[in-house]
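Annex B. Sample input.
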Amino acid sequence: MYRFFCEHLKYWKDKINRKPLIISGSRQTGKTYVVRQFADKHFDNFLEVNFEKNPDICQIFEIGDTNAILNNLELLFDRKITEGKTLLFFDELQACPKAIEKLRYFYEDHPLLHLIAAGSLLNLTLNEFKYSMPVGRVEFAYLYPMNFFEFLMAVEQRGIYEFLQNFSLNTQIPGPVHNKILSLLSLYYLIGGMPEAVKVYVQTGSLKEVENVHESILTSLQYDFAKYGTRKQQQILIKLLRYLPKALGRKFKYVAVDKNLRSDEIRRSLELLEQAKIVHRLYHTSASTPPLEYAINPKIFKPVFLDIGLANHLLHLRLTTPEILLENRGALAEQFVAQQLLTLPPYFLERKLFYWQREKKNAEAELDLITEFNSKILPIEIKSGKEGRLKSLQVYMYEKKLNFAVRFYAGLPKIQDFSANIRLKNGTKNVRFKLLSLPLYLSLRLFDLVQDL
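Annex B, continued. Sample output.
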């Protein structure tokens, strides 16, 4: 299964000022697989050191300099490490904090060595790191579950992938083709992008087998909670994990998780899940100009879950058929679009997504998603069906004095000069802006198509 992330690894491999690369991502998003696949195609030799499976190896990093460490690894694995020809891979790096500290010396002493490190709980470890951090001596990249285009290639729909990848706003999408892609989108909603779930479906064609994988992944995530803190905190994390899919597309309320728990207990657990890349928060921003992050309210946010397939499993939507109707599934449509946008390059940056809700009392208005593009605000409305009112978008566009917006929905692409009268407290106002409407399955082409306009 091909991952676009490999393109970033190729770029990193050939960089002049290359540094040891740390890949961050949730458990079972394919970090180890993608490094092995990359090594197989681009290196003569590959040495993988898994600190979780072999904790005793950490002793090698307690004594000696980097030359001694490399010599000892060669002896231990009976493998020659040749700079420029060998890819050295430290997996589950969080299990060996001393190795994290040593990364800076690999950069200084062996600049020609290709060294990649990865870990599923790495952000938690780095947040509480007691040793000297290798600041400026390492670089980071972020890996998420497989996106929709990667999914299409995996399920042998390369023709559809190439059609979407090469789509321009002048291209017509015939109705039967549009419906086929919507059907594949529904299948992605069910299976999601966790590589093991996709692989099992490709191998068996069985959605029931996919259910088993989803349950296994969620169980392993809960086992990881034992590493996060106290027993009580583990219980809160499990409650929070099972609540989050129910909160998709809406403002997060601490009391809804468990009214008997204190908000600060839930808040701390939410931060841990965020560091483990299991949840991403869309903060409300009141900004009228970039940067959006400077005007967020940290108390108002919506969650984006790790994966739409896992979310559906936790919502007990059993995978008896791939024909999930997009109508009346607004929260899942929001999850899908946000999940896709998070996977877009550049992979060395964590993409920031936001949303907006009107802060005035007795005035309900909420815009699903906001991001930045070319130093401008890009408002995004998300609909699960082919129709839908755009009242909140109209209010937002009027208040922020913007002239361009995007809508994702189940319909065909179109560009229109939008004009409407909206009723506000101070009377009826006219709002005008250009609206680019795109089918949900073109989420990954958002910035390309906006650039084309």
